[in-house]
Amino acid sequence: SPSVAVIAEDLADPAAPGRLAKAAEAALSRVDVLVLNAGFAVPGLFEKSSPERTAAMLQVNVGAHVALARLLLPAAADLQPP
Questions:
Q1: Residue range 35-66, pLDDT digits in tens
Q2: H and E: helices and strands count for the chain
Q3: Of 2, 77, 70, whose CA–CA distance to 36 is shortest?
């Protein structure tokens, strides 16, 4: 059966993807499947939203996903399709 690791991190923290990638590789040795499903929205009008909350949303919804894909998917680059 496949191995799975659950690692809790706050992806609004720009350093979190690096910590998460290290923890995943330590727990699993290799990451073959990466599910990027973290995200949230800032409700209401953009001009009335908190700039800090909007920046956190962008970090979680975009920045963390790009960083995690970059950090973890090279390990799967040599996988051959079934």
A1: 889 999 999 999 999 999 999 999 999 999 99
A2: 3, 0
A3: 70
Q: How far apart are CA 59 and CA 70, in angstroms?
A: 15
Q: Are 34 and 7 in contact (CB under 8 A)?
A: no
Q: How many CA atoms lie within 13 A of 79 on its CB side?
A: 11
Total-model pTM: 0.82
Q: Which residues make Cβ contacts (< 8 Å) with residue 19, sequence separation at least 6?
A: 9
Residue 63 is predicted with a pLDDT of 97
